[in-house]
Amino acid sequence: MISTIVAGSLAGCGSDRDEGNQSGSGVTLTTATTITSAGSDSTGDATDTNDTLGKLDVAGPGGSDSSGGGACQSIDMMSSIGLQPADIIIVVDNSGSMDFEAQAVQANMNAFSSQIFLANIDAHVVLISQIDGDTGVCVDPPLGSGMCPTDDNNPPGLTHIVDGVDSNNALQKLIEHHAEWAPAMRATASKHVIVVTDDNSDLSANDFQTMWAALDPTYVPYKLHAIAAPEGPVAGCLNSTSCCITSAAAGAVYMQLTMATGGIFGNLCDQEFQPIFDAVAAQVIEGSTLACEFTIPPPPEGETFDPMEVNVEFFDGVGTLDIGYVEGPADCGGVTDGWYYDDPADPTTILLCPQTCDTIQGFQGAQVSIQFGCATVPAG
């Protein structure tokens, strides 16, 4: 017997999204409704109660015949498709001139992350900063663990890498601690880096881009956001701006990186941090696409999950696309479309190949069905 999971439906996209949608993603997600009778007879008594979504129940290889005697008749289980998760790394300059700024970061961490969580986006936040002293950052609950001032680590929501960041080495510290924050990263998550400093970087923008991309191919594309000074103290005094007394140097490298990656540059000299964090949160939310990974649910009562009896199909509102199986992400480049397991030996998640993930974005009435019970069809 085949069990089909319809992983969700996309009822609208772009600027036409329902104003009641709180995801902020530019799409409205609804859960499809279907009633399917296993072993239905030729009179077609199996009923789809949501005609606007098209075909919900698709038999796998071998099909199900209209007499009810086919090898692959279906039972439907429903779950809504999620939004792409977000991995966010925040690096805070802990130099002596950053006492007010460090406290402002600490004060805004929960409001910032809560906006993202409330948009139904699963966020992993990594913080690189010392935890104590006037320029340290210790995050209170709910993002933090509640053990401040000595410990706020609360993975996977918050991973705090405790290390002092100097005026000019925030980007170097980010690269240096890769082994510690890499476990919090997910291949299908959007990537955002936020640097808070009143100075510039000793590492050039081009060198950082090269080093970042070399860490892991799934880290690109990414967005770098910065709260830094747009001008140095001399220029600030000459221009009678607040940078006269708050800037150590213009954050030229960070301006280059925000422009190159499409991130947000916030003026640290204004000392108004909440609007900047709000703008970054909005960009995280608005940039989230439909998720391209699906947790494998428990099989129906009385049935056993067989990883070699799984098939995936995409329905775009007009026609269907059969998505074949590949052994892993390295095999995605050799096929038009494909999916793979997180761990073929003990799978818990189905992931779509990057090109297939791109395919499913932006369709009205789109849905993905995951079918259990018939021999897995390899990608062609």
CATH class of the largest domain: Alpha Beta
CATH arch. level architecture of the largest domain = 3-Layer(aba) Sandwich
Regarding quaternary structure, what we see is: single chain
- Which term fits the overall shape? elongated
Give an overview in words.
The structure is a single chain. The protein is built from 9 helices and 15 strands. The protein has helices at residues 99-118, 170-176, 178-181, 205-215, 233-238, 243-246, 252-261, 274-286, 354-359, and strands at 2-12, 28-30, 74-78, 86-92, 123-129, 158-162, 190-196, 223-228, 265-267, 293-295, 310-315, 320-323, 339-341, 349-352, 366-372. α1 (99-118) links the parallel β4 (86-92) and β5. The radius of gyration is 24 Å and the shape is elongated.
Task: Write a concise keyword list for the protein shown above.
380 residues, alpha/beta, Rossmann fold, 2 domains, 6-stranded mixed beta sheet, 6-stranded parallel beta sheet, 9 helices, 21% helix, elongated, disordered N terminus
Secondary-structure map:
Layout: E1 2-12, E2 28-30, E3 74-78, E4 86-92, H1 99-118, E5 123-129, E6 158-162, H2 170-176, H3 178-181, E7 190-196, H4 205-215, E8 223-228, H5 233-238, H6 243-246, H7 252-261, E9 265-267, H8 274-286, E10 293-295, E11 310-315, E12 320-323, E13 339-341, E14 349-352, H9 354-359, E15 366-372
Parallel strand pairs: 1-3, 4-5, 4-7, 5-6, 7-8, 8-9
Antiparallel strand pairs: 1-2, 1-15, 10-14, 11-12, 11-15, 13-14
Helix pairs in contact: 1-8
